[in-house]
Design a protein that fits this description.
Elements lengths: L2 H6 L4 E4 L3 H5 L7 E2 L9 H6 L4 E5 L3 H11 L5 E6 H9 L6
Parallel strand pairs: 1-2, 1-3, 3-4
């Protein structure tokens, strides 16, 4: 299932891997903030979330790294790139995408 379908069907959990300061500056409503440098220490939390985990950050670099890290932990996840891209898709009626 691609990102548009996941958002349309309200599947998974959006996890923002930016720093808490960046997250405070703006984020997707309902998303969870777990900085990329804390992911491996907090795998147990991620395992409790509705999967797939939809990973985002500022530009896509950290979300790509986080996707690789979590796939190695056998978690189902999707690299969504920038949180602004997800926010844009959500602001549009994703049913028409």
């Amino acid at each position: 299932m691609n990102l548009k379908e996941l958002l349309q069907k309200n599947e998974g959990t959006i996890v923002d891997v930016r720093t808490p300061g960046e997250f405070q500056g703006g984020h997707i409503s309902g998303s969870v903030n777990i900085p990329v440098n804390e992911l491996l220490q907090r795998v147990y939390e991620l395992q409790e979330l509705k999967q797939p985990i939809i990973l985002c950050c500022a530009s896509g670099g950290r979300s790509a790294m986080a996707t690789h890290m979590l796939q190695e932990q056998n978690l189902t996840c999707v690299d969504a790139g920038s949180w602004l891209s997800i926010n844009y898709l959500l602001s549009k009626n994703v049913e028409t995408i």
